[in-house]
Design brief:
Blueprint: E1 4-8, H1 14-23, E2 28-32, H2 40-48, E3 56-58, E4 64-65, H3 68-78, H4 93-114, H5 125-148, H6 161-169, H7 176-182, H8 184-194, H9 197-206
Parallel strand pairs: 1-2
Antiparallel strand pairs: 1-3, 3-4
Helix pairs in contact: 1-3, 1-6, 1-9, 4-5, 6-8, 7-8
């Protein structure tokens, strides 16, 4: 099999796709870049993905994928033995698809608008109000997902790529302490997934422990 190229940045959603590539045992190379800063690599990223977002996945035939959920479903097609998604004939399939799109369509945009509110409104009180409301909306969505979390995995006894999303995203704002307090079921899913050695290795690469 020819190699895939995953373009990403440390601590970003590219960690989720990197985990999926490793678990699927799909040959790949990693291109890490500071995707928000001007550089030659960013110029190439913009040519491949005009939104300048990561992850961006270059397939062996040169096709470019720009959405993590699409990448996960594609990798499941390529390597179904990895169990990234339930098969079309499985009863968990509909729930998997619903939760997958909920994560990327509802939670992800809160970072787009909440990370840098002055980009979307005027600086000052308006931006701070947007930040506050976006963060509040994100918390509400996570609390909804908490009520849908299974054990030990999001789908109950069955592992899926949903666990990879939760494992990475619980390390983002509002942070692990908030999730441990407010969303213990999601934190339990994240901890269970991190027990897998390949997942744990990618986590350490993207979220290295603080040095003394």
């Amino acid at each position: 099999m020819k190699s895939y190229e995953l373009i990403g940045s440390a601590g970003c959603g590219s960690a989720i796709v990197e985990m999926a590539l490793v678990l699927a045992n799909v040959p790949h190379t990693l291109t890490d870049l500071p995707y928000l800063k001007p550089c030659d690599q960013r110029d190439r990223l913009l040519r491949l993905n005009p939104l300048g977002q990561v992850p961006t996945l270059v397939l062996p035939d040169g096709e470019v994928m720009t959405e993590s959920a699409a990448m996960i479903l594609h990798l499941n097609d390529v390597a179904p033995q990895a169990g990234l998604a339930p098969g079309a004939d499985k009863p968990e399939r509909a729930r998997f698809l619903n939760l997958l799109i909920r994560l990327v369509a509802a939670v992800y945009p809160t970072f787009t608008y909440g990370d840098d509110p002055p980009q979307w409104t005027s600086a000052g009180p308006a931006a701070e109000l947007l930040r506050e409301r976006v963060h509040s909306r994100r918390a509400d969505i996570w609390l909804e997902l908490e009520r849908q979390a299974g054990a030990p995995h999001m789908l109950g006894r069955r592992f899926s790529a949903l666990d990879l999303y939760v494992t990475v995203m619980t390390r983002w704002r509002p942070g692990p302490a908030w999730f441990a307090s407010e969303c213990p079921a999601l934190m339990a899913v994240a901890r269970e997934a991190a027990l897998e050695p390949n997942v744990e290795r990618v986590l350490r690469r993207h979220f290295p422990p603080p040095t003394e």
